[in-house]
Structures are given as C-alpha cells and as structure tokens.
Here is the input.
Amino acid sequence: AFYGQYELTSAAQQMAADLVRVRAKAIGESTQYKVVFAEKSYQVKVNSAGTFVNDGGATALPNGARIPTVPDALTFSPIGMLPTASTITVTTVAGSKQVSINELGRVQVQ
Here is the structure.
C-alpha cells in the first residue's frame, strides 16, 4: 500500500514540477508553450513561427499512474498565464491526486 501511495504522490509532483518548468520557459523565451495530455503521458510543445512543435519527447507517467479523464491542452502565454484554470486528476491503484493550476500559472497538488 505504501508503494502505491508513493507512486501516486511522485506522479502528481512530477507533473506539477513540469508545469512550473514549462511556465518558466514560456516567460523566459516570451513565447507560447502548450502541454498536451494523454492517458499515460504528456507532451510539451512550443510555438515556433505560429505552429506548435514538440519540445523534447513525451513524458510518461510512472508505471501504474494514469490520467483517467484527459483534459484539454494547457497553453501558457508569453507572460506565463493560462486562459482558464485547470485540474488534472492522476490516479493509481492507491487513489487519486489533483494537480491544479490557476489562470496565473500557480500549481498545487491536492
């Protein structure tokens, strides 16, 4: 049971840290960044001359973790803001955690 809880917390914290990093890149480079979610991974994309292209490879969630309801992509503006707040639910056999991000780009794990 402990391992499953650790896996869940780790998956949620990894995603939260990545969202903070992507927001910082958007601000630092003054360009739009997008995070596109799938059930077991997410992909960061950068706006390159009007087209979003992959920024590195997709990030796989840790083994056993998944996003049961895939949310819309998050698009960070060049000042690190989002058009709307969003919550991404990450689940494992141990339960679920929510990674929430508000319009200003503040990320929380609950």
The mean pLDDT is 94. The beta strands are 33-37, 41-48, 51-54, 59-60, 74-76, 86-92, 95-101, 107-109. The first helix runs from residue 2 to 29. The longest strand covers residues 41-48.
